[in-house]
Amino acid sequence: MKLKLLTLAMLCGSAALLSGCSDSDNEIEFKTPAKEQQSDDGKQPADDKQPTDDKQPADDKQPTDDKQPTDDDKEPVIAPGTLLELRVMETTDLHANLMNFNYFSNKEDNKVGLVKTATLIRQARDAVKNSVLVDNGDLIQGSPLGDYMAKIKGLEDGDVHPIYEAMNTLEYDVANIGNHEFNFGLEFLDEAIDDAKFPYISANVFVDDGDDDPSNDLSLFKPYLIQEKQVVDKNGDTQTLKIGYIGFVPPQIMQWDKANLEGKVIAKDIVDMAEHYVPKMKAAGADIIIAIPHSGLETAEKKPLAENASYYLSKVDGIDAIMFGHAHANFPGPRYAGLEEHGVDNEKGTINGVAAVMPGFWGNNLGIIDMTLEYGKDGWQVKDTQSTLQPISVTNEDRTVTSLAINDAQVEKAALSAHEETKTWVNEPFAKISDEVNSYFALVNDDPSIQIVTDAQLWYTQTIVQGTELGELPVLSAGAPFRAGRGGPDDFTAVEKGDIAYRNVADLYIYPNVLKVLKLNGAEVKQWLEMSAGQFNQITPNTEEVQVLVNTNFPSYNFDVLDGVSYQIDVTEPARYDTKGNKVSDGNRIKALTYQGEPVTDEQVFLVATNNYRASGGGNFPGISGEKIVVDSPNENRQVVADYIALQSSKNKETGMDPSADSNWSFAPVAGANVVFYSSPSDKAAAFSARFAHITPLNQTTDDGFAIYQIDLTQPAN
Questions:
Q1: CA-only gyration radius of the chain, Å
Q2: Could you tell me which of 501, 421, 507 has the C-alpha nearest to residue 152?
Q3: Pairwise CA distance, residues 167 & 291, whole Å
Q4: Using one digit for the tens of pLDDT, what is the confidence trace for 553-590?
Q5: Taking phi first (over 0 means left), then psi (-120 to 50 degrees means alpha), and beta for anything else, what does residue 564 get?
Q6: Residue 514's pLDDT is what?
Q7: What are 55's strand-pairing partners?
Q8: Cα angle 251-492-425, degrees, rounded to a multiple of 5
Q9: CB–CB of 176/222 below 8 Å?
Q10: What's the Cα-to-Cα distance from 230 to each of 79, 238, 348, 573, rounded to whole Å?
Q11: How far separated are the first and last CA of the chain, in Å rounded?
Q12: Are the beta carbons of 202 and 246 closer than 8 angstroms?
């Protein structure tokens, strides 16, 4: 009998995915992949209780064993100074990109896909004697294939998710849970991963037992594993290496997926859990410990429940390697240059001397740490390491792409059926639009790609509050450009005029968020916009020096446009908030904020339609939290957008919906400034720029392939 993840954890008091359990009345069997089976061979059992300082749970007690070992039981003698080489490989943030294919453009894309990374995995494994392979989550969501499996086709008991059909061919040793694993709910997550032929871990997610007593908290997953690996040392002798793995997820899952998780699980601080469990792993015999945090790298002062905690994990005694992710970046890589004073070696790939790697996203790189271990009086110790990234492609100067890996036949076979079904599904038209929609200039102009979303949310909210006590309040709507170059110079929304299919809606709104409505006053609305205005660098007027307008460290999904009000953004003022929502100046960038032609007052009350991520505090917007939600809609934002497009298209069946932006925001005029920004290098982007007198292509590109555009800020855009 198969039992769902959360129920099993609550009944068993142990990690839901990894063990069976019994009580006085019955036994409950749980399907366990072969690699996960535990025996009495010295492997560490599940440790799923989190103690307080004054109360240690029973699992801290060490069993006594008076039996004296025989000669057969003794470990083989290893000569001091014996060397051993181990290759640790990582994939992360695949986001359901199995094939080398872009479902939005309906074209082959050799810059993405596990089908390519798999070839590099097999080659890297064959090149050495000893290797292990880990995945670091954000796996089942993020492409239309992921949506199709979760929302359209679904999974029944016994079905194998195509992602795991593919990954099972690659002999992963362990996988960690990412934050996007929770997007489709715990039940779907359980059904998806129960056919993985490798174990899952996560050390900072616990069952919510509601008793406010942390000493008896039970892990939702197995917090860590210790696996015995047969390896060959430099002398050619076989050794048994006990490798410990421990995984983590951002605690912000409780905000980002509140609807799926509240009352079911709790998340704890990453570093606190590492400091609790790593000593246990060492005591249980782990020779080396590999941390797999789905968490980025930031060197700022440590704060409780930090989202990006990998830097501080490097300071936890006992961790020998960090395979990290979440930030969709490369380490070692240029983004992390100049951090030597913080102990970051961007050539060797170490953080405070600890080996580390982060291999990008969507399968575009394989992360590798090559470790040399030496045996001494304290057992196996790390002697040297080198971190490298192996890309699946290279982009040439003329923007063509050269693939560096052929498609892996086994992964391609495993993915092919779901891939073809997804292609069919995403290309079925259901409406029309009368003009093209793209996000090429969404960061510098009021933009149709955002307007469609905000209009849809506005329509939906006005409909559901009509006739209620909220029905008389003015409604605003927040939207952001999700695809505005974060994934590279080709990562922009581009929808042709004419027929609209699901792939176009998913292009406009890439996340499976749920619509929420907040009740805010005018002062809170203004601070929301001040936070969004951190998207821009401060511009100095009356200088010939070239100044870059857009702050590329500010994620575009946090550049919220609020429709329903009109306003200007004065970029000569300093940003009031940094990317983490910390107040860093008294800057006042938002000017002329009006509603229906009248200035917005601090006391004025609004409804603001947004998504569950933002409404629950995602992005650290000042004053925005779940307590202010007044409409807890069950509808996905993306479905609301699709319904709205269909409705508007039905009103004009010949040409379809008009997607024009209403120009409700613009920049306050800046005199005498030479200002540029970066966008898509495509011919379509250059052609589209001809619609705007204040935007001029310079026919130049940056080193990473973005086109450079000049923008005239001397007068507001029309």
A1: 27
A2: 421
A3: 21
A4: 999 999 999 999 999 999 999 999 999 999 999 999 99
A5: left
A6: 82
A7: 52
A8: 85
A9: no
A10: 17, 7, 27, 61
A11: 64
A12: no
